[in-house]
Amino acid sequence: MTTANNLPGAPFFGYRQGQLCAEDVRLADLAAEHGTPLFVYSQAAILHALGAYQRGLAGRDALICYAMKANSSLSILKLLAQAGCGFDIVSVGELERALAVGAAPQKIVFSGVGKTRAEMRRALEAGIGCFNVESEAELAVLSDVAQAAGRVAPVSLRVNPNVDARTHPYISTGLKGNKFGIAHEQALAAYQRAAALPGLRVVGIDCHIGSQITEAAPYLEALERVLDLVTAIEAAGVPLEHLDFGGGLGIDYAGETPPDAQDLWRQLLARLDARGFGQRKLMIEPGRSLVGNAGVCLTEVLYLKPGEQKNFCIVDAAMNDLPRPALYQAYHAIVPLGEAPHGEARSWEVVGPVCESGDWIGHDRSLAVQQGDRLAVMSAGAYCMSMASNYNSRPRAAEVMVSGASARLVRQRESLAGLTTGEIV
Ligand SMILES: *Cc1c(COP(=O)(O)O)cnc(C)c1O
Description:
TIM Barrel, nine-stranded mixed sheet, 29% helix, single chain, alpha/beta
């Protein structure tokens, strides 16, 4: 159970004088000023998470490419770009966001199984650092597009090390039988093909074995498998400049204790050094672990509906704001903004107003709440706002960035007029 002492996001989120705060700002004040549902991010928490990777990779030729699908809000991108990050993108829309905050194009890598020709053209024109190619068919199209544009596309092949990341099946990506990457057994042939295509220049190799990984072992296993491949590919005459180990490191939702990024990289670098790859250019693509514990979603209790079998606590945030529970049966801690509870705690099904039985935020949560109280949904910095939708014609939430004692609105609540923009009657 989440208590004041083991709150996800601590010490950047915690109770002070009985009031839940983000850094030095009371969340109740932000909810009163901006309304709910409201996402609140801690700048210090993001920089702290990044710092663990930076320390872990200190002294190496390494580039941290933030996987911006986790949260592509411009204020977060700008913060990370200014801190030296590159970006891992999966669409031309994400490319434009990265460019809009002044990201260096050479620090952008483009992942994804379904890049269109138009997306490839735009990324080539922008001069991105690398296309992380996921199939042989994509290699051929990219070469074609690059040649027609009079350019050479820098490519890496996403290989599938067939390692079990031991995470939820929807977010496990490195096993045979999912749509991502090129099978280990086919990788060498695919590299030889890539090297022979006129519009391509092979620059690296990448992998990404899954998400919300809470142990070091799958990373260590994948590392060995990828290094075996690198050895074979280079022996066949295709040199690789960089090695990209993807993202996937987990965060604290319900008391998970994933390895610290610095400690994980100490272990991985020891193996890289032992096998003679320690001086290679390294890249990583963390998403969730940079922002997940750095955000919360504030919501107001609209109605309490106690029943014979279940008690429902109906809040103003819903699956369109917080899609992870509906999508992955994910757990988010839910806590009151004021530490002193109203009356006795009882068990609640915390649900939103959307007309779907799948619209739930938390099952069987022990909370002492009254109508009008406000709650914080913790660990909501990753894969929440970036996955938010307008289902039920609900405007998307506002976002606030906190730094120390200051807070600024970084995204306005979507307007009702905005909801129908582009529609033609
Ligand atoms: C989603 C994704 C990431 C980031 O994953 P996290 O679990 O958020 O760290 C990195 N690389 C690729 C290719 C991805 O698809």
